[in-house]
Amino acid sequence: MAKIKKAFFCQSCGFEAPKWYGKCPSCQSWNTMVEEIISSSNHIQSQQLEQITYQPFKPINIQDVGKVDFQRISALDSEFDNLLGGGIVPGSIMLLGGEPGIGKSTLLLQIALMLDKKILYVSGEESAEQIKLRALRIAQKNPNLYLYSETQTQEIFKQVKNLEPDLIIIDSIQTVYSDLVQSASGSIAQIRECAAEFQRLAKSTNIPIILIGHINKEGEIAGPKILEHIVDVVLQFEGDRNYTHRILRAIKNRFGAQHELAIYEMTEAGLHPVTNPSSLFLSDGQDIYSGTSVAASMEGARPFLIEIQALVSPTVYSVPQRTATGLDPRRLNMLLAVLDKRLGLQIANKDVFLNIAGGLKINDPALDLSVIASIVSSQFDHLIAPKFCFAAEVGLSGEIRAVHKIAQRIQEADKQGFEKIFVSRQNAIKELKTQQIQIIEVAKVSDMMKLLFK
Ligand SMILES: [Zn+2]
Fold this sequence. Notes:
By secondary structure, this protein is α/β, with parallel strands linked by helices. It folds into 3 domains: 1-39; 41-54 and 73-275, P-loop containing nucleotide triphosphate hydrolases (Rossmann fold); 280-452, 2-Layer Sandwich (Ribosomal Protein S5, domain 2). The chain has 12 helices and 21 strands. The model is unreliable at 42-47 (pLDDT under 50). The chain binds zinc ion.
């Protein structure tokens, strides 16, 4: 009989320890260590894997690397393919994370129905009938899609051997369990073991595997960070369930660019790729209010325009409120300090609310100038012309600094019909083919304010 082994696991980072700690020695979180049963036997493990045809990787001469490109499988969805850097790499293991109900299963089911490949869709969440019902709403039909309701990895491996699919989808990693670990499914020990088993399966058979992972309330892929280390690609769904658009971001990608993103629109018939994202995040320009300006942002390799809204109002509290939605609050505080010190803006006793329209989360210093313009616009109740756009970072002394990929930002604003774009003088834009946009180079925040609010 197998001896029962126990260990403590940090629920936040997956750190394993033989004894309990109040504070995780690895990620320093408090009260995250939980005892779980593990009873792993390497002997059974290796037997299990031998049942599957084993194709070990061989060392490659450095001169041959890159000559043979991976025979990527195109998902037939240009947004998804671009996000991955050209398609799904055989033998790769991918994690698709997101909050429950955001559209993870819909997207993968859609891809499974679109592909002309043999696909095994394993669901521990829904029955085959429920999946069929959802599939009926999607226009595409793949006669080689196999649905399988199973949660035990050893059973899944047997079916993989019988069916020999071209792609495996596991919905979700939190519902599957391995016989080799005795703790409940969804526990750290189980997730870690199952992910490792799937990784070995992918590497040994060359079948790509996509794992769906639910995200917990802290916005992290539920369970361990350890999962992110095991897989080759981590894609994460962002966006608010209250909006129709969904943003899929590549957080990690061993085969392509990181921080690339794809934008989808949720409809009755599934998720549709959005090819002109700027149109999604800008209002139609019918009603103009003070405190609103447009920033030319860059996410991954893609430029798009977003609307930044600010509201400045006298506080009723002893400590004024500062809220930033979609933007780092520390960045907002820094910009407010710059406004206070360099422009003499009396803002210390005001509440400041900042919002990026459309539920986007953006970490791009080029938004600074637009944030500052919005705050000043709200403070003095002066409108900013709707066809003005901003792209520059602001430094602590109020200087306007250059940002990367300025040409793409300007071209996107030009394409969207903007009249003026404010950029840093340091960017030194020389020859740039634009249709109509006027490029205004500014050096200091105070100079820009004179130009904006004469
Ligand atoms: Zn930890």
